[in-house]
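re: the backbone from monday

yeah here it is again, tokenized this time
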């Protein structure tokens, strides 16, 4: 399996996102040499987290094009961040195009509800923050830290963020690189 060295990942940010779920994947992917772009859907670069931390995104969605160069699209959880993502037509359209193109998507914590809303989880295995399984529609809920079904990766919540992030790196750089980053971060 050839590793995609020039992989490109976009992560959508909306007001009310969960900090660790947004920033840890960006941190770990960038450590792995994967180009990772934070995209604000708020009409401004500054996005305010669920706990009042302001993050400056790399791009606004209006500047980003159609995401056809994306190897993966990521959604952090948090409330109301996840519902803000769900209610943004540009995000839903990008997710649907990504799935139709046979490319990866990932969502953590409450954000799998966005994938369900976009119609991407029909009959697929997925996880979501405990107590929110009804938001998965007709997906097959699994109470696990990280669930992979084909090109869709979902994670349960903040504590899942490191195993989830290392898994994301492995898609583009291989298991050995992911393990090396984990070791360097004193994981385990």
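seq for it, each position gets an aa:
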């Amino acid at each position: 399996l050839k590793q995609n060295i020039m992989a490109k990942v976009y992560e959508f940010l909306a007001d009310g996102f969960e900090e660790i779920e947004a920033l840890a994947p960006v941190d770990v992917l960038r450590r792995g040499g994967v180009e990772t772009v934070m995209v604000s859907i708020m009409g401004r670069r500054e996005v305010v987290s669920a706990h009042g931390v302001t993050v400056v995104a790399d791009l606004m969605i209006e500047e980003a094009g159609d995401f056809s160069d994306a190897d993966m699209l990521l959604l952090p959880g948090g409330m109301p961040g996840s519902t803000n993502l769900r209610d943004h037509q540009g995000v839903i359209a990008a997710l649907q195009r990504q799935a139709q193109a046979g490319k990866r998507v990932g969502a953590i914590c409450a954000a799998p509800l966005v994938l369900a809303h976009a119609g991407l989880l029909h009959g697929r295995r997925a996880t979501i923050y405990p107590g929110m399984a009804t938001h998965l529609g007709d997906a097959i809920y699994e109470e696990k830290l990280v669930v992979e079904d084909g090109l869709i990766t979902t994670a349960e919540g903040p504590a899942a963020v490191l195993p989830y992030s290392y898994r994301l790196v492995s898609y583009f750089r291989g298991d050995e690189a992911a393990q090396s980053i984990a070791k360097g971060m004193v994981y385990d």
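The chain has a mean pLDDT of 96. The longest strand covers residues 8-13.
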